[in-house]
Amino acid sequence: MKLINHYLLLLPLIIFNSCNAQKKEKNVVSLKDSYKKEFYIGTALDVNQIEEKNAKEDSLIKKQFNAITAENIMKSMFVHPSKDKYDFAMSDKFIAYGEKNNMFIHGHTLIWHSQLAPWMAEIKDVAEMKAFMKNHITTIVSKYKGKIDSWDVVNEALNEDGTLRKSVFLNTLGEQYLVDAFKLAAAADPKADLYYNDYNNEEPAKRKGNIDLIKKIKEGGGKIDGVGIQAHWRLESPSIETIEESILAYSALGLKVAFTELDITVLPNPWDLKGADVNQNFEGSAKMNPYPDKLPDSVQVKLAERYASIFKLFLKHQDKISRVTFWGVHDGQSWLNDWPIKGRTNYPLLFDKNLKPKKAYQNVMKLKDTKE
Ligand code: 9MR
């Protein structure tokens, strides 16, 4: 009897606790849920992630992100390794992953001077290059028609001064290759959003070149829907003002703006060092790899503040921004551990190598009212 009485006394507390737990569970939000009204939150996936090799990573990806880009496997050297051979085994898995998880699927990339199959780099003849472009773009875009939501049709066609980069495409077809690429992609899937994607295209000179390029594509009759600013950024640069000017300038052309490969390096860049010899070998240099074991709190805070000011700007212009994609899920997989110097330990993303959310994650989440 006594026991039952005790239980009755405790009952309100038990009910209160369980309601609270439920409430807490409801409030456990993610990046994708917090930003669902503003823009997609994406990540780049490597082969192991596409193949769901690590259950913990997989559940983090599904919980936090609603858009995916293949970090490497859709590049031409992988999907079109020889003239008469396409290999879609991995890209089919990538698409299946996105479909299964109701994710926005971005295609990266159709026409890029880098990671080309060796046979493509050898094309010198105009007719042969035209035939290549038609076959390559039409085959890939048609195969995933209605499945891939947006494409990087052309990637990194500009030099830093805004002029057109010399490439096998420019050398054979001249600047018309840009218009042709967008026309071919639109013909193969009229509903997919078509993007031009580049790095440093928020910087004034390159931005101006990018604007001219977009105008050329439009004047030539190509359909272009958006511009991808890759956003491989640093703690101190580019400035928020420069990024804002770019969002405004590109959207003034009627284009969507996507941040397609966001990460922020916290490591020194040897090319910033006065008098540093570019050809010097920095591998294994302690000065160039200052945080091999742990990121000091002071830098962690700087990174978090940098992410907060960037996302504050993104929120301000959310009506112009379609997607913000991080270039990787966690620090351990980032390409920045190997560039521009191999074998360093970098900390550019929101999750650390053990998949723990960093202070930068908390800051990005804090900007949103997470109780909605
Ligand atoms: O992250 C990618 C890395 O694994 C590859 O080795 C590299 C090869 O060029 O490409 C990296 O991704 C690049 C992207 O495809 C285009 N923009 C720059 C990215 C970082 O280099």
TrEMBL record:
EC number(s) on file: 3.2.1.8
Catalytic residue positions: 261
Xref: Pfam families: Glyco_hydro_10
Matches recorded under SUPFAM superfamilies: (Trans)glycosidases
UniProt entry tagged with the keyword Nucleus: no
InterPro entries, alphabetized: GH, GH10, GH10_AS, GH10_dom
UniProt superkingdom: Bacteria
GH10 domain: residues covered: 25-367
Gene3D superfamilies named in the record: Glycosidases (3.20.20.80)
EC class: hydrolase
Coiled coil: none
Keyword Acetylation: no
Keywords: Carbohydrate metabolism, Glycosidase, Hydrolase, Polysaccharide degradation
Catalytic activity: Endohydrolysis of (1->4)-beta-D-xylosidic linkages in xylans
UniProt family annotation: Belongs to the glycosyl hydrolase 10 (cellulase F) family.
Protein name as it appears in the record: Beta-xylanase
Species in which this protein is naturally found: Flavobacterium limi
Taxonomic lineage of the native organism: Bacteria, Pseudomonadati, Bacteroidota, Flavobacteriia, Flavobacteriales
Gene transcribed to yield this protein: xynA
